[in-house]
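1st attempt posting a full record on here, be nice pls
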Amino acid sequence: MADAIEEAFPGVVVEGNPEGDGRPGSFEITTEDGVHIYSKLQAKTHPAEEDVVNRIANRAKLGPAAPAEDMCG
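the predicted structure (as tokens):
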């Protein structure tokens, strides 16, 4: 997943959870500004790379002034 994101968005660096190991069974993707892009806990399934890349692209189109709304739904 990290490779797909970094390939789609040159200059973006994907980092692991800065707080250490996450909750068992979780796979969460959150932007630097706190927007939740994907939640396996909510979706109950692992994300498709294309879906995550599209969600990030949609967030990027909104720009930094857009409200930090949850995009998991």
